[in-house]
Amino acid sequence: MISSQWILFDKDGTLIHFDESWTKIGIQLVNDVCDHFQLEDRQAVYRAIGIKDGRFEKDSVMNGGTLKDLIAVFQQFTDEDVADWTAQRSQTLISQRVPEIELYEGVAALIQRLKARGYALGIVTSDNHTGVTQFLEKTQLTDAFDMVISTNDGQYEKPDIRLLQPLWELGVRGEDVIMVGDTDNDMMTGKNMGSALNVGVRTGLGEDAAFEAADVVIDHVGLLEDVLPKAK
């Protein structure tokens, strides 16, 4: 029987070191959009979306925005409708991505301790099914998680809690969930579902996150047990 108390983790930047392949495909997506729609002032697009010196700038759309936010920026530079093509190209790039997977120190042991305490564990990630499968196989954590939710079809993404429909179908309520992640979108996901606790982590993109919707902020996920309720 699955526990009524869930911990829902983001993956990249929370459980594993931020996967630089995301930066690479993000920049590739911008370049592909500029090429396809003949956006001549590429540097202006870079500035508007938050790319500088091959990195994502703090508090930029590229750093913490959704695909919908990116499309809105692209749309400022052309009269053509860029939404469908951009969404399809994004999914293609994600499917072709070669992930760089390295667990933060102590994560595997943490997961096992949480399981022993009776928590049900889940992952909600912007990665697709292929990337998640590679992550689980590489880290040998396939049996550790009771549910994995990814944005494989691009229909919903964090912080839209319709993404979490597989949880709701099990009868899980937002108040049954502790949300753990490294971005403001992760924390907004928790807030939107009415989570029991929102835990921001200062790794990955969390180094620059505002975490206004977080209930508590920790330096890394290894400190999670220090802020969990003492009794469930």
Q: Can you walk me through this structure?
A:
- The chain is 38% helix and 13% strand.
- It is an alpha/beta fold.
- It starts with 5 loop residues before the first strand and ends in a 14-residue tail after the last strand.
- α1 runs antiparallel to α5 and α4 packs across α5.
- The protein has 2 domains: 140 residues, 3-Layer(aba) Sandwich (Rossmann fold); 77 residues, no CATH class.
- It contains 9 helices and 8 strands.
- It comes from Staphylococcus intermedius NCTC 11048.
The tally of beta strands, per DSSP, is: 8
Number of helices: 9
Give the helix proportion (percent range).
Answer: 25-40%
CATH topology (level 3) name of the largest domain? Rossmann fold
Structural class: alpha/beta
Protein name: Haloacid dehalogenase-like family hydrolase
Enzyme class: hydrolase
EC number: 3.6.1.1
Pfam family, one: HAD_2
Summary keywords:
8 strands, 232 residues, Rossmann fold, elongated, two-stranded antiparallel ribbon, alpha/beta
Describe the structure concisely for a colleague.
The chain is 38% helix and 13% strand.
Topology:
Layout (H helix, E strand, L loop, with lengths): L5 E4 L10 H17 L5 H8 L1 E2 L2 E2 L4 H4 L2 H9 L7 H14 L10 H10 L3 E6 L3 H11 L7 E4 L14 H5 L7 E5 L2 H10 L3 E5 L14 E3 L14
Helix pairs in contact: 1-5, 4-5
